[in-house]
Write the structure tokens for this entry.
Amino acid sequence: MKKIFSIVFLLLFGFFLFYINLPVINYGFTGFAIVLLLLVILGILFSLGLIVSQQTKQVKIVSRPSKVLYILAGILLVYCIALPFVTSLKMFRSDSYQKLIGEVKNGQKITNHIAPISIDKIRVVDEELAHLLGEKILGSQPALGSQVELGDFCIQKVNDNLYWVAPLLHSGFLKWFNNQEGTAGYVMVSATNERDVKLVQSVGGKAIKIKYQQGAYFQSDIHRHVYFNGNATVGLADFSFEIDDAGNPFWIVTKYVKKIGFSGKEATGVIVVDAQSGAINEYSIAETPKWVDRIQPLDFIEDQLNDRGEYVHGYWNFSNADKLQITEGLTLVYGKDNKSYWYTGLTSVGKEESAVGFVLVDTRTKETTFYKQGGATEFAAQSSAQGKVQEKGYKASLPIPYNINNIPTYVMTLKDDGGLVKMFAMVAISDYTIVGVGNTMRETLTSFKNVYNMADNKINPNSVSNKKSLKSVVTRIQNDVKNGNSFYYFKVKDYPNIFVGSSQISNQLPVTMVGDSIKISFDVDLEEVIDVSSFENINLKMSMKTK
């Protein structure tokens, strides 16, 4: 009877460990072996018969476990400890780790990869602010807010617009037990407009019920649901919540294998799970639907880039010769081809202020491009922007790289202690002393261009090719004062855009009138209102010559 009880207990305990931990049953993963090892150790303890002698008070062994259990325990220990040490230790496999990122192409100019962008498309809402805005709209629905909580936000493009999207999750076991059909929707926060916040509870007139989610219980847990539907032998990572262009909610799960013994995670494809019905579709990397923004998990790419820089000359490189490391972290950006990329700077080991180049990694295919271009790290750019408003004590968000008039530029928000956006900043990547700040993105762009032009374009001579000169006649002009600075908006004959310049650009602007002939130069960009970099009133010049 004792033996039967022990076997039943071990089976039930084993199933519990298996169900809770969801170990991958494949070579290179130790989770399943560790579960078996725990069961074998318990089996040895249960098989060990001990009695205490009443005369000598000593413990005597009356029955011993089978030798098979000891052999099995030894094999499992070798698999869990010795084998990973031999096959995965970086000391022995540094070359494999260094090459895991794959071929790294050399790019010419990063502005060739990152598309020019209009200021209304610049990301001004980061994940922290998105969470604050999401909590606010959730709090405006008392009946709903007491039942659910916000999940993690994932940035993505939806119909060519950039949004932070987060699911509504059960806030506890009882909430899940009383509402097992699922939570009522998700929150969308525009990454370019902090006033655009939506609580989406229906799609196509049909109510949303997110049944499968992280942190749910039993088979409603998204990881457990995927695992027990044919994916127990493959690594599963990066459970990110995305919506398709119609607004239907899905979970995107990356499948991966181990390429270097028990290490070296490599993405092989994705599993797309309908968050409502639980329907599962598996895709290779090449066949993944276009609306899925990312396949390569951030931590995979981060590790592989660091390993590439760390082991450039093998493991025994005590002088740190040519070693590189990533800077602040990885940021999701979008390129000219409308694809998403992981972006980061690379800096020499021990140097935190300046980057030796920048890397873009395709978030789907892992295609990697390195741009050998010196410049500021994200940390240095943040410090420079904060220094401009140090009396206010604002903190800069993680910088996002953009192409501003063919100038590689970090754009960031400046926030108060409450996490609210108060100002904006632009910092030239090539020279973090070129800084523009403002209360609006338009003011920031004008300030940045003024500082940049006063630097005589020394930081990027190639940007001159994007300048245009124009001679025309003023058809309308009006001034506007912002934060103590005078700006002059004017239109000219036969050109559709509105131009703007400050009195710092030219002292002739304040005395220019309708009908005056002028000569201006400006950067060709996507804005309706264009900043002039030089201004000359031809009428005033001729008048002075006549006198």
